[in-house]
Amino acid sequence: xxxxxxxxxLVRALDRVGLRVHFFKPIGQPHxxxxxxxxxxxxxRQTMRLNPPVPIALxxxxxxxxxxxxxxxxxxxxxxxxQTAADADVVIVEGLxxxxxxxxxxxxxxxxxxxxxxxxxxxxxxxxx
Length: 129
Description:
CATH class: Alpha Beta
Distance between the termini: 9 Å
Strand content: 5-15%
Oligomer: single chain
CATH architecture: 3-Layer(aba) Sandwich
CATH superfamily: P-loop containing nucleotide triphosphate hydrolases
């Protein structure tokens, strides 16, 4: 089971128990061959009454980080999160799947988790069993 499946399952489970749950993917990570919206965001828009913001493009995030502009990236992440969290009881924040090709790694996610005040952080890596 992948990160997208786990995330969507968690959002649906919390919704079923009556929480006002929202979803947020700060940085998009397209799958090979995807041409449309980021996968998790697109699925939740189609299957639930959620309207998560469009994630920051992976290329933009990588560029900001490579230029030493992590503070600008974090400002953008926090701004999108605030839009998402306005009337939510809980916001599920989906991070990046860690692959050998990924240039944004755990330090970036830890930074935005810290900025957003995340209470829990779980994830995995591509190919993990």
